[in-house]
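CORE FACILITY INTAKE
Project code: CF-77B
Contact: R.S. (postdoc)
Sample description: multi-component assembly, two entities in total
Requested service: structural model of the whole complex
Turnaround: standard
Below are the sequence entries exactly as provided by the requester. Do not edit them.
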Amino acid sequence: MDSRRDFLKKSIFLAVGGLTLKNAFADEVPTIDFQEYPKTVKYPEKTDLIMYSDRPPLLETPRSYFSKAITPNDAFFVRWHLSNIPTEVNLKEWRLKITGNVKNPVSLSMEDLKSLFEPVSYYAVLQCSGNGRSFFEKSQTSLGIQWKHGAMGNALWTGVRLSDVLNYAGVKKDSIEVAFSGLDKAPYPETPNVERSLHIDKCLYEDLILAYEMNGEPIPMLNGFPLRLIVPGWYATHWIKSVTNIMVLNQELKNFWMETAYHIPDNACHCVEPGEKPKKARMITQMNVKSVIGTPEDNTVVKLGQVIKVAGVAFDQGYGISDVLVSIDGGKSWKQASLGPDLGRYSFREWFFYFKPQNKGEIKVMVKAINKNGETQPFEAGWNPGGYMWNGIDSITIKVF
Amino acid sequence: MKKLLILSLTALSISFVKAEEKDIYKIDLPYYNWQMKEGKYKDVFEQNCLMCHSPGYIFGQAKGKSGKDMWRTVVYQMIDEFKAPISKENAEKIIQYLNENYTNK
């Protein structure tokens, strides 16, 4: 963490001194200008990803990874709020503390976690609330990182049940919430640090886990090593990274992250007219049904007569996917795609569809998923100020010559 | 100053370092040099807006249709919600710089 602190000190120093980073770094540091933004770069433990910010690192998975149900750790997207992120963790010293409204406050090492509790695993999609935010920009740019398809991924998470850990500390009867925080900190002391809470019933009676493995490996540092809260079906904002503090509460947690951030219009479409503010808002929770085309690439060129395989993934908040439909005539008619194996209700479900274009010209391929609750994707998602919950129908263009 | 510079250069390496002791996990982050457009009050922007995050946040915001008062909303959000220590006078200058250089009607 040392080099990072020095960097921050230095950048603050430069900023205050009125110098620019540009002058000091001109020769040593790769340059990015507006034209080449966002740029594809490589980070530690990561393959080439689309970079939106280096401080904090914000990295998007390229769309082509979404033809497979499991997103490799090195291609998994990266999202932090505050730029003082953990870059070094010593597991000898690291502890998970469970405090607050409990009978026995405890401090657990990683070894304790692995030996005291039964390990459990499941596949679950992790998706940023703002995934697809850039697709709102036609009506009006929403505030936040302009993600395209890839602020999401699906992994096999392994860890311990949150309820087991809470019961080990002994939750007192009048508890109503559990608050979580991790190793990331704001670089400026007045900025509110990320601390979020969930209702006690969700923590005790649902299938949340504290994961120490992602796809059979330790969680990459940039994805929340060494322990991450997994809240299947809910947006990533609840999946606290590098968790170190769990505090059981007998009153509601009140801070910027709970009262203001990640709020959606509290109506059926979670939307308002572009530019308007919602009359009533609430915390974002469950994901909605969605599908993304992983292959072929947008604007692929094929010869007439060639068979085309379109493939991608679909998911929802946990009902499970019942159907994926593909259109090759701009949405007039829809045909059933084939589904890959079912890896569990919180997982990506692979789908694929073969067809042979009959004419030369451009074909717009569209896909929409339907879940087991009968919910389906809209052509365009309704606008909201935070640019959350985009699940508009995905499409690509194929050129036949 | 010199020492700081050397340290930040080592931060450029993009390898995953596992220290001798297998309990220590460590990575070194790369950094980038963000080229902001030249314009009036660019200096005020740079003095006030680089402390907490990179200008990547600004670039992203400037791609689509901006809507009314986007940069005013952003700058006052930084001050009110994230407690950015920026005077009203400087806030207005920054809004002008961003409106003139990073807005789409």
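Facility notes:
- Helices of chain A lie at 2-17, 21-25, 110-116, 162-169, 200-205, 256-259.
- The two ends of chain A are 54 Å apart (CA to CA).
Invoice: internal transfer
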